[in-house]
Amino acid sequence: MSDPTEFTLAEARDAVRGKKISSVELTQAFIAAMQAARPLNAFVTETPDRALAMAKASDARIAKGEAGKLEGLPLAIKDLFCTKGVRSTAGSNILGNFIPPYESTVTQNLWDAGAVMLGKTNMDEFAMGSSNETSYYKPVLNPWRAKDSNAALVPGGSSGGSSAAVASRICLAATGTDTGGSIRQPAAVTGTVGIKPTYGRCSRWGIVAFASSLDQAGPMTRTVRDAAILLGSMASVDPKDSTSVDLPVPDYEAGLESGVKGLRIGIPKEYRLDGAPPEIDALWQKGAEWLKAQGAEIVEISLPHTKYALPAYYIVAPAEASSNLARYDGVRFGHRAKGTHEIAELYEKSRAEGFGAEVRRRILIGTYVLSAGYYDAYYIRAQKVRSLIARDFEQAFAKCDAILTPATPGPAFPVGAKSDDPISMYLNDVFTVTVNLAGLPGLAVPAGLTANGLPLGLQVIGKAFDEATVLKVGRSIEVAANFTSRPETWWRAP
Amino acid sequence: MNAAPDKNKLIAGATGPWEIVIGMEVHAQVLSQSKLFSGAATAFGAAPNAQVSFVDAAMPGMLPVINKFCVEQAVRTGLGLKAKINLESIFDRKNYFYPDLPAGYQISQYKNPIVGEGEVTIDLKDGESIRVGIERLHLEQDAGKSLHDQHPDHSFVDLNRAGVALMEIVTKPDMRSSEEAAAFVRKLRAIVRYLGTCDGNMEEGSMRADVNVSVRKPGGPLGTRCEIKNVNSMRFIVQAVEFEARRQVEILEAGGEIRQETRLFDSRAGETRSMRSKEEAHDYRYFPDPDLLPLVLDQAWVNDIAASLPELPDAKKARFMELGLSAYDASVLVAEKETADYFEAMLAAGSEAKSAANWLNNEYFGRLNKAGLSITDGPVSAEANSAILAMVADNSISGKIAKDLLDIIWSEGGDPKAVVEARGLRQVTDTGAIEAAVDAVIAANPAKVEEVKSKPKLAGWFVGQVMKQTGGKANPQAVNAVLKVRLGLPDDA
Amino acid sequence: MSVDKDTVRRIAKLARLALEEERVEPMERELNQILAWVEQLGEVNVEDVPAMTSVVAQRLKMREDKVTDGGQPEAVTANAPLSEDNFFVVPKVVE
Ligand SMILES: [Mg+2]
Ligand SMILES: [Zn+2]
């Protein structure tokens, strides 16, 4: 193959393992692509030297016959993962100079499998956003553009740097994190695959926390197979994370092609939104037909509390965030305001300077809903609604093996289009957020294009710890959709 | 407790007597090697930030994992306080900003603590016992330390203590005097030390008391309380309560109102004063820590811990009394675990309970006090003291020699039996030798022999002379008997 | 429920976020917009519904009481904006 950046993760793995290409050659190709794609602003920090050193070490291991599962494969890492000795910003000014003296469990798992780090990808600040516009390090641009338009589109968020990097083929795959849809929504609007595994499947240790009861790391890839491969290496049982679940990690790749014959696929009627573009509904219907054609049984199900998921999320997530982000106070790490003479002033100024507008807004909402007199009315009520949402899924899964929904209410939108209206921005996660509230696995897989040529995805939701079925259903959709479209490489200098 | 107010505990004011109402919150550091949620060490006195993990420093992405031993110690302590163990408890975040609180929240337990209601019985000086209700015990993290006097305009923050496991033990407002408050802490300290769950070291801060004080007209409705923070000795507890109660009475009698506030005890000035930094109204925004799951315990595990509890002070005191000790002696011996252990080591070495108790109370403890030594630092082992008493019991040495012998062992060490032999301290019980000595004294003092006939009390002088002659080693009873015969004194002389 | 300007100032203080006076009014508006939107949770009947306390059905993991960490004061303070002799340094705190 002439251009190694055309490889999927699986193909690159086989090529490296088969010594058809060295890790150094592969890595050099991606470094060049990454550097050529700077107009996308997908990376906060590029680490080409480290990448080459890791690639060299990989080649040495391959020569000795000690190749790991991801040996020599260049990946991009969302900047929410702490990487030892490499600046980790969480997209925020407050961590602008933060160099962790430790490595997150998920990334350590990847390096232990032999993977190579190309750099740290841009993201919404502290993962709060659906468009990557809240990043202190400037928005990321979606590699995709609408037909006959040069308008800059958002790559989704918060893992927008990762989605853009995967879609533009400047890395083989990337890591993302998903608190309300932050893997699946950007994957959907960039024509890539993303899976948020079951809460507890991937360790949260070393990932900057946004909302602890919702955050999960997951892979962002070009194909479902790649997602299965990468998830297999990211996931582990971690004694350092009390919420990491003691279940063995299955071989997700093994059962990928076993098909959906006999599976019952649930279609939740509450996911039909008034005012949603007809294209979304049409695609969803098409997805159901593809699965039916492959032998699945389509069943109508009900998730009655769906409409309350986003409001509940916008209480629970800011509440947890307001507490999780209290540690950014300018004392032990991060930005400290200059010229303060009093500790309260140091806190207030450092935090006001260090956090962007969306983060400040969510901290205030979270502080308010936890404060005396409001806790029961907001936080406790939201956690009760959350129990109802989880119960909805439990009842639905008595009737089906997986659930099919749209991934997003629409395609990528122009930069700036929703930045003035927080609620319209929040609505991007309307289909994805229920899954986080219930702790379930959800996969976004590209399924088609809008009339003006922008990618749309479908979402597959599974039972807790049944990522295998989710991936299998995703693979069936992938086969049927045969999504081969790709963005033009307008970002490369001619 | 609803008993009528005890007149002796009331304090006199200009408008009549006042009753003091005291509740306590005691923070007891769990005697663990590592912290509650991290693997960093807990030892006292380490170099700045040397016992800090990234978790303790609340670095981004760090997560807590609970120390099982600390959970076990909380259960143990709860059982020792005769309290209800809650098989499901929740860790909450208590949110506030302070430089020695790295995460901006303390992991604590709020609505669902690991231990519920219990009680402690305390013995007062006059032999009275009262019961103090325990409201709850919960596990929480300690904060770090800010040093304020190293630099004119900077404070220095050391997180070595941050994350150390504390048991916060909260009482009901059941105490009515400074003496009761101090006695409660003393008793609680004894219990945790018996249990081995906390070393009770108040100087190093491993046990710290916050005292809630209010005053009221006897039997009237509860007054507004002030919380006095970090009172770190029994003496200071007494001082702080008394100062604070007086202060409140003065305000109330002057027509003022008590403001509910946190106050600091200034041990140098012996007074309490308002804490400025704690002034602003707090809103801790407690909520369950999403990094942790509910703490669920098995009843069987709790039962195993219950079965492994040592004998506690109350039970030990009752047992000592069954051995013939007075209530007072028994309570002195059980007050400190080490003292009770020492006493029991003497019993194990064969000493009789009452004489061992007397010997310790009358002889050994006095010497320790004078030297400023604790029972564990004292130079004479329980076995040595027991050996001394054994020689008194079998008449090998006299009581007087026993005290001299204790002094010798105290300063020079050695095996009491061997010292007695080497120095010829063995009591002379051989009648021949005593008779010879008596005869010699009689022969040398004919005038006294005459005198004693009319003044039988002079017999004591003869005893002294004979003892002198024998170097104190003669058995006093034997000397008496021989003297009576030789001097022709009546039996009852 | 909605917030007024004083509440906005109070929660900004609680959250230790400096909020310039001219930002109070717009923030009040933004927060009320969000609060009005989440208000719809009031429609849900949550009687006898337990609040979710854990997302995963698992016992809390426990560690053994062993010293496995620490002894790295330099690494702990390496990112501190101001430190001295391995202490973190802050403006003087008055107690
Ligand atoms: Mg307290
Ligand atoms: Zn406490």
Fold and architecture overview:
The complex is a heterotrimer of chains A (494), B (493) and C (95). Chain A has 494 residues and is an alpha/beta fold. Chain A has 15 helices and 11 strands. Chain A is globular, with a radius of gyration of 21 Å. In chain B, helix 9 packs antiparallel against helix 10 (399-412). The mean pLDDT of chain B is 92. Chain C has a domain at 5-41. At the A-C interface, helix 9, helix 10, helix 11 and helix 12 of A face helix 1, helix 2, helix 3 and strand 3 of C. Strand 10 of chain B pairs antiparallel with strand 3 (87-91) of chain C. The complex binds magnesium ion (MG) and zinc ion (ZN). Magnesium ion is lined by residues 25, 168 of chain B.
Write the layout of secondary structure elements.
The complex is a heterotrimer of chains A (494), B (493) and C (95).
Chain A: H1 9-17, H2 23-36, E1 43-46, H3 48-63, E2 74-78, H4 105-112, E3 116-121, H5 160-167, E4 173-178, H6 184-189, E5 193-196, E6 216-221, H7 224-234, E7 264-268, H8 278-293, E8 297-301, H9 309-324, H10 343-354, H11 357-370, H12 376-396, E9 402-406, H13 422-426, H14 433-438, E10 442-449, E11 455-462, H15 467-481
Parallel strand pairs in A: 2-3, 2-4, 7-8, 7-9
Antiparallel strand pairs in A: 1-3, 4-6, 5-6, 5-10, 9-11, 10-11
Helix pairs in contact in A: 2-3, 7-15, 9-11, 9-12
Chain B: E1 11-13, E2 16-29, E3 66-67, H1 68-80, E4 88-89, E5 92-95, E6 105-108, E7 118-123, E8 129-141, E9 145-147, E10 154-158, E11 165-171, H2 178-195, E12 207-216, E13 226-231, H3 234-253, E14 262-266, E15 271-274, E16 287-288, E17 295-296, H4 299-307, H5 313-322, H6 327-334, H7 337-348, H8 353-371, H9 382-393, H10 399-412, H11 416-422, H12 431-444, H13 446-454, H14 459-469, H15 476-487
Parallel strand pairs in B: 13-14
Antiparallel strand pairs in B: 1-2, 2-11, 2-12, 4-17, 5-6, 5-16, 7-8, 8-11, 9-10, 12-13, 14-15
Helix pairs in contact in B: 2-3, 5-6, 7-9, 9-10, 12-14, 12-15, 14-15
Chain C: H1 5-14, H2 21-38, E1 62-63, H3 73-77, E2 83-84, E3 87-91
Antiparallel strand pairs in C: 2-3
